[in-house]
What we know:
The chain is of the alpha+beta class. It has a single domain, classed as Roll (Thiol Ester Dehydrase, Chain A), CATH 3.10.129.10. It has helices spanning 14-24, 34-39, 49-63; strands at residues 2-8, 69-76, 86-98, 101-112, 117-126. The longest helix has 15 residues, at 49-63. The chain is elongated. It comes from Cytobacillus oceanisediminis.
Amino acid sequence: MTELKPLIKPEITHTQLVRYAGASGDFNPIHTVVPVGEKAGLGGVIAHGMLIMGMAGEALGTWFPRKNLRMFKVRFSKMTRPGEKLAIEGKVSEEIVEEGEKRLAGEVFVKNEKGELKLSGKFQVKI
């Protein structure tokens, strides 16, 4: 098993969530309007899941050539809030042959500074 160099992201900000809403077209107010997030029982706004997945994808793109990515799927574990700092960790667990090509298979994890798991995923990249 090979551990990959963690990608450390700066603190999530409310401004970042507003910008991501505009870029993605996901204007659900639980991501941008604090009173709406509070009324929904979330204790404020929460980050878009796809923003966090995008950060995991960014890490994959730093570890491997993007053109070699063959599979990437994730599962969300916990909400992410403004003020949290995230680290994307990864590991290669095995070498496989799929669809006639050699690939590395591994896992990716997004955790906050307290070590709380926000997202876990699996990936495959062509060797």
